[in-house]
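step: validate -> pass
step: tokenize input -> pass
step: predict -> running
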Amino acid sequence: MIIGRILKRLYHSIRYRISLRYYKSDSCRGRVIQAYLENEPIAKLQLGCGPNRLPGWLNADIIIEECKKGAIYLDVGEHFPLPDESIDYVYSEHMIEHLNYAQAVNMLRECHRVLKPNGVIRISTPDLRFLLDLYQNPEKPENKSFIKWSAEGGAGGEIRPVSPVYVINKFHTTWGHKIIYDYDTLASLLKQNGFDHICQCELSQSTHEALTDVERHHLVFSVDFYKLQTMILEANKI
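step: predict -> pass
step: emit ->
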């Protein structure tokens, strides 16, 4: 049985490496990117798309199963397989919090490189101030509802006692979150990597038509809870 398990793991490992090599190849990824850039007058790149592939966008993800469904393979911790100044808009939703610091810096530097002059990046991510408010004001009606919902298994994860401490720890650990930003920290990181004119946006709202109504994460749970925990920043390449 032990040999059987070893062989099974080896088989899946080999299959994954073969798939990865294919989805990173010019014959697959390169062809899709070239065709997209040649045919789309406004080039839009979504990073970490998951199952939420946006029509008219170049949707990218690191998960092979998503590549099989139409996304291109792109690891944001590596060099992006895109030409300099080839993209008008970049968008990521609830993804940057899954990166360590070096990966986040690389992602922003690469976004800056591939964006056209004055191109726009939009980032949706959990807000650290939301977690602090859960701890400091657990009896606020919206916080109380979220704590109960999350503790009882809302959006997945294990069931825990109804307590802000358990819920905050669950939020930070259950889904592979590595850094939860506040506005000032993320805005500073954007400025350090060549972005300016930073503004905070409401859900589905933007002064750029291409970035309006792009959020999809709230479809997993309620709009109210999405708004409670999420901040959305936009910034221009300078």
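step: describe -> The first helix runs from residue 2 to 23.
step: cleanup -> pass
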